[in-house]
Design brief:
Length: about 90
């Protein structure tokens, strides 16, 4: 899947807001705010469930990595997530 198409599909899901569970959350991490080398996707089945996390790492910007973005879309679709959230920007890691 094209990286731009994948990013648009994720953004469309995020714009829907909170619609209950299951919920998927995305957070990008990097050494600077300009480049995200990691992304963590968390899946929460219901309100009291412990989130299940999966991390993807890229040598370049994970937000522009076609494989990672396509995988995120597939995870969102396969989990039948009612809510998708994304932490804005890139969280700095040391």
């Amino acid at each position: 899947m094209n990286v731009d198409k994948a990013k648009k599909r994720i953004a469309k899901q995020v714009k829907k807001g909170f619609n209950g569970y299951p919920q998927v959350s995305l957070e990008y991490f990097g050494k600077t705010s300009d480049s995200a080398t990691e992304v963590i996707i968390s899946f929460t089945l219901d309100e009291n469930a412990k989130p299940q996390d999966q991390k993807f790492v890229s040598k370049n910007d994970a937000r522009e990595d076609e494989t990672i973005q396509s995988t995120l879309v597939k995870i969102i679709e396969r989990t039948n997530a009612n809510t998708v959230t994304e932490i804005a920007g890139v969280s700095i890691i040391n």
